[in-house]
Amino acid sequence: MTYRPPPPPPLLDRPLQLFNNLNDFQLLRTLGTGTFGRVRLAKYKDADKFFAMKIMKKVDVIKYKQERHVMNERWLLSKLNFPFIIRLYGAFQDAKNLYLLLEYAIGGELYSYLRRAGRFSLPTTKFYASEIMMTIEYLHSMNIAYRDLKPENLLLDGKGHVKVSDFGFAKHVPDRTWTLCGTPEYLAPEIIANKGHGKAVDWWALGVLIYEMLAGYPPYYDQTPFKTYEKILAGNLHFPAHFDPISVDLIQRLLHPDPIKRLGNLQGGAQDIRRHPWFAGVDWNGLFRRTIMAPIQPRVTHSGDCGNFDRYPEESSDFGSSGASATEDPFKSF
Q1: Displacement of CA 306 from its chain's centroid (Å)
Q2: Domain 22-103: what homologous superfamily?
Q3: What is the per-residue pLDDT across 145-165, written as a single tens digit (0 to 9) for each?
Q4: Which residues are marked as active site?
Q5: In the chain, what are the domain boundaries?
């Protein structure tokens, strides 16, 4: 049976306020940290159910001028419904913080498994690249560019399947945009050159990710972002000796410096990627239904197990604050 991607849902908010009260949750240990917030494991008090609570400090979001990205992430997550995308269960706020209640991907970051393994085998790389390719195809069907693909943003569920997270840089892009954002090693040359970019930047990032999974390091890297950008623009692509010719061909086509000629952005779209010999034998329907066993099986002992996440220093924070915000609040519609 030929796989056909599901039609995109209508651009209407699905009900979010299934959970809308911070007092309904017990906040447990930190799962990850960022520039202006952290993610905590949260237990729903009335049931043995766990979530990931993304907590962002309003003052820091404003300090780093990330208001639009934060509001955009909440808006986009409310519209996405795909097996390999983290699900949003609620969004609320208090005087000092913003809260996103997210599906808990108990398997941890794909980056952690890659770091321990050094590099992935070809079958493992193909499995995860296939799930990610389907996710990018789904997002592009809604004219959404993800723009932040990297191993750290790829989580695993309890059965080892991908859950794409962190949509702060994602954007509705019917044509092109000029915002410089993303991780230096994963930026497409048109972003660096500030020529305006479209959804094709995600196919470039997929090529970088496949290379990194197979090699253990990205194709373009240096000690400073500026030198990394120089290498990307120079386009001198070198492959380790263990790369097979079909992998080399796929990566070269995905890392074409001209987005017009980049695989995935041609007339056949994502189907051109599916038809590449590298993906021969992939059961796309089985992947979509998640009936194929993942090559990585996370160790999970109970529904609130967080052993697959690194330890982070905890901080005492003022959650559930009442009263007016210290600054003019741009988050009224959060």
Answers
A1: 20
A2: Phosphorylase Kinase; domain 1 (3.30.200.20)
A3: 999 999 999 999 999 999 999
A4: 148
A5: 22-103, 109-289
